[in-house]
Design goal:
- It is a single chain.
- With 192 residues, the protein is α+β, with helices and mostly antiparallel strands.
- It has a single domain (2-181), classed as Nitrilase/N-carbamoyl-D-aminoacid amidohydrolase.
- 17% of the residues lie in helices and 31% in strands.
- It contains 4 helices and 11 strands.
- The protein has helices at 2-5, 79-82, 103-117, 167-176; strands at 9-17, 20-28, 34-38, 59-63, 66-72, 91-96, 120-125, 127-129, 135-137, 141-143, 149-152.
- The strands form 3 sheets. It has a 6-stranded mixed beta sheet with strand order 4-5-6-7-10-11, covered by helices on one side. A 3-stranded antiparallel beta sheet has the order 1-2-3, with no helix packed on it.
- A hairpin with a 5-residue loop joins strand 8 and strand 9.
- The radius of gyration is 17 Å and the shape is globular.
Length: 192
């Protein structure tokens, strides 16, 4: 589809490798190149850690002049993992299964990640019910680097919308309000 329509596609799926299962984020470029990284933070309260293995790398891709970081669902609750050190990325995408009963957390955390990292943020969340009867109501959104809503999607409805974002306003904002220069330098050690 990416080749046919000359667009990139991102999301996540269940992957298996060497007898292990991963919640894998992917980015498919229009020419067919694929990059991926596995979800770092497994939702132990839902038993995800009993079935899936943890990832240990962040995926940052360059596409259309943007450096884009793609993370999965529960990773949103761990700001050190998404920390944008030295402006390594401009756009943060979360693909998620965030339940309706915690949707206000989702809304707030997306805004926090936009503000603290000085990036555009896109949160893509599912709708409907899962096999356990848990409800999901969407709240997919595109935010600017100040957490202003650029696009929002109707609750409990599928929708296709487009919005054009640019790097110039982001760079200008980062130059004028350069909090990123004072950020702590975290080192996340790889394991496993």
């Amino acid at each position: 589809m990416g080749k046919k329509y000359q667009l990139a596609i991102t999301g996540s799926f269940i992957a298996t490798e060497n007898g292990k299962y991963f919640n894998r984020a992917f980015f498919v470029f229009p020419e067919g190149k694929i990059q991926y990284a596995d979800k770092r933070h497994l939702f132990s309260m839902g038993g995800e850690n009993n079935f899936f293995s943890q990832g240990n790398e962040k995926m940052i891709v360059n596409y259309c002049g943007f450096n884009i970081c793609i993370l999965v669902c529960y990773d949103i609750r761990f700001p050190v993992w998404s920390r944008n050190i030295e402006n390594e990325y401009d756009f943060l995408i979360y693909v998620a299964n965030f339940p309706e009963r915690r949707i206000s957390d989702w809304d707030t955390l997306l805004k926090a990640r936009a503000i603290e990292n000085q990036v555009y943020v896109c949160g893509l969340n599912r709708i409907g019910k899962d096999g356990a009867g848990i409800g999901y109501n969407g709240h997919s959104v595109l935010l600017d680097f100040k957490a202003n809503t650029l696009l929002s999607y109707p609750e409990n409805e599928t929708s296709i919308q487009t919005f054009e974002i640019e790097t110039a306003p982001l760079k200008l904002y980062r130059d004028k309000f350069s909090v990123w220069r004072d950020a702590d330098k975290f080192e996340i050690k790889k394991f496993g």
